[in-house]
Amino acid sequence: MSRLVAASGLTAHVGGIAILHQVSFEVDAGEVVTLFGPSGAGKTTIASLVLGEPAPGVCFTGKLDVAAGGRRAGIGYLPQHAGDTLNPSRRIGASLADLVRLHRPESCTGGRGSVTAAVLEVLAEAAYPVAGDPRELLRRYPWQFSGGQRQRLALAQVLTARPHLLVLDEPTAGLDTEARAGVIDQIRAQRARGLGVLLITHDVHVARSLSDAIYEIDHGRLGPRRLAGQLPATADPTRAPELESGIPLAEFSGLEVRHGSQVALAPLDLTLAAGEVLVVMGSSGAGKSTLARCLVGLDRPTRGAVCWRGQRLPMARNRSRSQLADIQYVWQEAAASFDRFRPILTQCVDAAVNLRRRSRSDAERSVLALFERVGLSPAQVRRTSSGLSGGQLQRAALVRALATEPQLLVCDEVTTALDHEIAAIVLDCIRDWQQTSGSAVLLISHLLGPLVSMAHRLAVLQAGRLRWLGTMSEAIHSHDELLAGLLAARG
């Protein structure tokens, strides 16, 4: 096995301040070596030295041998936010074709058809799935692709040069779980082809999934070479609660939603029990919000039915007062759900008075107590929506929903606009309400970590289809890479 990188005693300084201390490591062909640690630990500084492009003002001593094909050109570099390296004004096919002509001229002797074939070959090397007519894909601009797709297209650009060593700096940063799983697959594929990979990440799941060896780095100091299995586990199975009730409340039966020829939800069967917390996850466009909107009567199913306590539910405008109160929806776009001319407190009290027939004074007392629970003062909630921030309106929307004493609470990215401290308060509020009332909760989220301790089951949607369904304990113990990625996103 050939050695591609050998670093010994690397020390780097900026303005007399040491930022790396006696760093030593190796990378061999066909091996993934990971530099693992928090932001600012020195990972990217090491990568810049390997690339021969240290940041301005960085001076280093020590020994560094890079033998990637005998030249620096044998190194392929994928920076953070790699999708930004794509030219936004050029179609992706034209950009890749130029690189193929430059780096693989022997593949382009047969005219335009051979160039297209070489481009498709590079996309396959980057694990980019080409379905249908490839010409349609190659005519698109970078902004017409998702973040995960752009990440793979950027890797395809790098691979046109047939590098011997890949340096990947946080290749999964900012990606949803499905896209992250795709990136992991493509890195594995490059290792199988004999490339050496120097991987920089602070994502413990990515490190455990890919690495042949791991060096933990902190404050510029590199720990000893370790195996991936020596990293701590990403989830604690004892945290997942068990459901005791199991009495069906809501049921999706053969539910299908189409928008013209586009399938938003493929036929789906799913139940939600009393006292259950069900988390629904998936990438953007997977069908999560469509599922929720069908449940609350805002989207009409193309086929199938949504039932509540065994009875088919009509659209929202035709539901009874008790049905509207029983199933409450907290929208992701909270600001749009409030009347901008009336005080927030008034609107929340009106929900309890109109749907549950409570007296106004009793409703106001309980609503103000809920506002206090989520960190909003009486003075704040007597304002109109224009006087509150997006995060404050998100909390107000939750209070308005809880004011009706629902039996099912549907929350679409309820903590998206909140910082970690306030998000924890909101989740604690939902948990306390659910456990006290015995009601059910459907949580739509892109981040599972904070929800493990309160969720009973997990449903994962992918391209409108139910990709996985099971208890949280089953998810934790599953060997499915997608689920492992969800659990690794601790938040």
Describe the protein.
- With 491 residues, the protein is of the alpha/beta class.
- 34% of the residues lie in helices and 25% in strands.
- The chain has 16 helices and 19 strands.
- It has a six-stranded mixed sheet, with helices on both faces. It has a six-stranded mixed sheet with strand order 15-16-17-12-18-19, with helices on both faces.
- The longest helix is centred in the C-terminal third of the chain and has 18 residues.
- 43% of the residues are buried.
- About 1% of the residues have low confidence.
Characterize this entry briefly.
The chain is α/β, with parallel strands linked by helices.
Search tags:
six-stranded mixed sheet, single chain, globular, alpha/beta, 491 residues
**Major beta sheet, strand line-up:** 5-6-7-3-8-9
Report the end-to-end length measured between terminal Cα atoms.
39 Å
**How many whole angstroms does the radius of gyration measure?**
26 Å
Helix content: 25-40%
Work out the strand percent: 25-35%
The number of helical segments is 16
Overall shape: it is: globular
Structural class: alpha/beta
Major β-sheet annotation? 6 strands, mixed
Overall mean pLDDT:
85
Number of strands: 19
Low-confidence stretches: 234-238
Oligomer: single chain
